[in-house]
Amino acid sequence: MAVQLNHTIVWCRDKRRSAKFLTEMLGLADAVPFGGFMVVEVDNGVSLDYRDREGPVAPQHYAFLIGEDDFDAVFARIRERDMDYWADPARSRLRQINRNDGGRGFYFEDPDGHFLEVLTRPYGSGG
Fold first, then answer.
1. Which of 38, 31, 101, 42 lies closest to 70, judged by CA?
2. Which CATH superfamily is domain 7-119 in?
3. Tens digits of per-residue pLDDT, 39-68?
4. According to the model, what pLDDT value does residue 81 have?
């Protein structure tokens, strides 16, 4: 059997708010409740399962490979909300996108400080 990522738990302060943010920003279907989670499914069958947590949330990084048209839509949503975004994970290139491997990408934060990334070409793919 091949090894595939099936799901990951995303700890947050408000699972409904956080799941809604992700689905809105990426243009995904609404999250679905399952047990104590709000489940966001992405197109390759992997889900991000949002769960409330008391106290501090340790920020994590989640990267999403998307198409060029989807990139334009996500970028437009970021700009409509006047959100900060960065071209790099060190956050040194504020309000810039990168052109790594001949694609486009940028990073932005969700309501709990998780560092989200969208990119149109996988790293190391050339271009």
1. 42
2. 2,3-Dihydroxybiphenyl 1,2-Dioxygenase, domain 1 (3.10.180.10)
3. 999 999 999 999 999 999 999 999 999 999
4. 98
